[in-house]
Amino acid sequence: MSTGTAVTSESAGQVVEPMSDARHGDEMADPDSDQEVVEDRSIAGMTGPDGPLLRLFRDRRVAFLFVGVINTVVGFVWFALFDITVGRLWGYMVTLLFAHVASVLCAFVLYRRLVFRVRGHVWTDLVRFETVYLVSLGINAVLLPLLVEFAHLEPIVAQALIVFVTTLVSYFGHSRFSFRRKEHTP
Question: For the chain, which residues make up each domain, given as ranges?
Answer without folding.
Answer: 7-38, 53-178
